[in-house]
């Protein structure tokens, strides 16, 4: 497929802006790319990999959201709430699970949205909230970002990426930071007692589109190493209740540790998803951020690192 010139130029500018900051964007999440990963990505760049970016650009057409009469009627008597970026993200996180909502979520057309409809559109969306204050929301409008909001959004992402890169610590070939925690079933997890086994860590969270997209592949890897000295731990900063609700509708075969932000920080937790492999001596031998489904890159890299830790990989 040949891209229209205008779309191609927009896509190139957008992708280059991300790459200048050392980041790539999918859905609402950000993950960092190394120079090597960037070059590999560019080699395999195609209309398939460009399409999400193009959709993201072309859907941000208006600079002022237009509410329909039906929506105005539904919001009648409610005050619009001014949200901080942190509060906005909290609401976006909440609407990923409508069973927890105490308020309706509307489209600009005034239609109340279902969970399935929300998930179909979450790539480039934001929220307008109505009610008394951020803790007492009565209704939410789920809509596309405007051009101005899109520009502000990527400026914020760029600053976040620069801050993370400045503080980033490379743990590869160093002893893995020890931790103890309780898994989602209430069982104790102590990394020190897992010495002698290969430990695979996955950092994820519920609202992370690439994290969820990666899970079926991770489940296949868990099955492939059944009966071997490999322990798979999935760590999220999400609350236990939210995590349990998510796992009821999404299969993830890792042993899950919720509310694990302090542990993730030990491993320089910025960037999602993140896969870390710790060998039998307790040394980090691999740490990779991001999910790269093209040419099966992420899955192959993780399997290669696990095999190396097990001593079963054939060196070329």
Give an account of the 3D structure.
With about 325 residues, the protein is of the alpha/beta class. The chain has 3 domains: about 5-60 and about 150-165, no CATH class; about 70-145, no CATH class; about 170-310, Glutaredoxin (3-Layer(aba) Sandwich). It has 11 helices and 13 strands. The chain has helices at about 5-20, 35-45, 45-60, 70-75, 85-95, 115-120, 145-165, 210-225, 240-250, 260-265, 295-310, and strands at about 25, 30, 80, 105, 125-135, 135-145, 180, 190, 200-205, 230-235, 255, 275-280, 285-290. The strands form 4 sheets. A 5-stranded mixed β-sheet has the order 11-10-9-12-13. A 4-stranded mixed β-sheet has the order 3-5-6-4, with helices on one face. Helix 1 (about 5-20) packs across helix 3. The protein is elongated and about 65 Å long. It starts with a helix and ends in a 6-residue tail after the last helix. Residues about 1-10 and about 20-55 have low confidence and may be disordered.
């Amino acid at each position: 497929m040949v891209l229209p010139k205008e779309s191609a130029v927009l896509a190139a500018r957008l992708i280059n802006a991300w790459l200048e900051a050392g980041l790539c964007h999918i859905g609402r999440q950000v993950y960092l790319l190394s120079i090597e990963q960037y070059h590999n990505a560019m080699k395999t760049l195609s209309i398939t990999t460009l399409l999400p970016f193009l959709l993201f650009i072309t859907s941000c057409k208006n600079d002022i959201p237009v509410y329909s009469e039906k929506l105005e009627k539904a919001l009648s008597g409610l005050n619009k709430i001014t949200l901080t970026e942190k509060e906005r993200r909290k609401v976006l996180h909440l609407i990923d699970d409508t069973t927890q909502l105490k308020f309706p979520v509307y489209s600009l057309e005034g239609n109340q949205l279902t969970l399935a409809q929300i998930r179909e559109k979450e790539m480039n969306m934001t929220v307008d909230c109505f009610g008394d204050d951020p803790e007492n929301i009565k209704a939410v409008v789920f809509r596309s970002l405007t051009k101005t909001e899109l520009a502000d959004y990527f400026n914020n992402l760029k600053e976040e990426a620069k801050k993370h890169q400045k503080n980033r610590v490379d743990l590869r070939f160093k002893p893995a930071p020890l931790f103890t925690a309780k898994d989602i079933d209430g069982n104790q997890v102590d990394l020190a007692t897992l010495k002698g086994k290969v430990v695979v860590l996955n950092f994820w969270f519920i609202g992370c589109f690439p994290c969820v997209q990666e899970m079926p592949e991770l489940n296949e890897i868990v099955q492939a190493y059944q009966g071997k000295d490999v322990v798979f731990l999935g760590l999220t900063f999400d609350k236990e209740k939210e995590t349990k609700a998510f796992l009821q509708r999404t299969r993830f075969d890792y042993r899950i540790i919720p509310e694990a932000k302090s542990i993730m920080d030990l491993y320089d937790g910025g960037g999602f998803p993140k896969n870390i492999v710790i060998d039998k001596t307790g040394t980090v031998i691999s740490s990779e951020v991001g999910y790269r489904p093209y040419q099966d890159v992420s899955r192959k890299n993780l399997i290669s690192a696990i095999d190396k830790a097990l001593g079963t990989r054939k060196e070329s």
